[in-house]
């Protein structure tokens, strides 16, 4: 079932290096900076309750720029701590393309965005990855976890839905912001899985010994 949400032309932007949100996934966030507390307050007053996650990067002249593609999430849960901070959950709705950043009164950043080209994001399921070999993928993942002394619930991973498995790992594993951006921009679940495998293999080869053997 398609998401019937009002997708505004202008959304608040939360540029957070390394934080990846994907469509149909959920991202917990800790909000404590005053400008982002204001952003959350303003967002909760809107019908869409959308916040745009996006990877920032530094230009050669030191400018704090934004990548052209991000993913917007709807605030579905929030709770306030005693000292005024918020714990929120964003449910990924759709990727977007930044058209331009806006100047204005709010202390947080806002962008005019386009949702065109990301219609598949707003359906109930991704197009299936028909070439996915789960056994092979889990072997590579196991070597990666062993190399970094990470633990996992392998029974849950083995039984997880393909999209949930690939997207959750893409969001949770520690990759560089540019690698996270590559995972975000992957046009399909198949290409995201292929990108993830490439990153896992690269990380293993970069460990100083041939961990892929």
From TrEMBL:
Protein origin, superkingdom: Bacteria
Q: SUPFAM superfamilies, from UniProt?
A: PUA domain-like
Q: Name one Pfam family in it.
A: LON_substr_bdg
**Stretches assigned to coiled coil:** none
- List residues of the Lon N-terminal domain: 11-204
What PROSITE patterns does this protein map onto? LON_N
Q: What protein is this chain from?
A: Lon N-terminal domain-containing protein
Organism, scientific name:
Primorskyibacter flagellatus
């Amino acid at each position: 079932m398609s998401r019937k949400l009002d997708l505004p032309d202008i959304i608040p932007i939360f540029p957070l290096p390394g934080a990846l949100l994907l469509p149909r996934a959920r991202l917990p966030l800790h909000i404590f900076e005053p400008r982002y507390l204001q952003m959350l307050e303003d967002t909760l007053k809107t019908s869409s309750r959308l916040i745009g996650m996006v990877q920032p990067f530094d230009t050669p002249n030191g400018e704090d720029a934004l990548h052209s593609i991000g993913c917007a999430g709807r605030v579905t849960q929030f709770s306030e701590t005693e000292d005024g901070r918020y714990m929120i959950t964003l449910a990924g709705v759709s990727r977007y393309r930044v058209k331009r950043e806006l100047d204005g009164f709010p202390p947080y950043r806002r962008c005019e965005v386009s949702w065109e080209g990301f219609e598949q994001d707003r359906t109930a399921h991704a197009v299936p990855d028909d070439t996915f070999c789960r056994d092979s993928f889990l072997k590579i993942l196991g070597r990666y976890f062993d190399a970094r002394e990470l633990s996992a619930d392998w029974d849950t991973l083995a039984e997880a839905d393909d999209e949930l498995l690939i997207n959750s790992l893409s969001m949770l594993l520690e990759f560089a912001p540019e690698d996270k951006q590559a995972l975000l921009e992957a046009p399909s679940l198949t290409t995201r899985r292929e990108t993830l495998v490439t990153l896992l293999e690269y990380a293993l080869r970069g460990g100083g010994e041939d961990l892929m053997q």
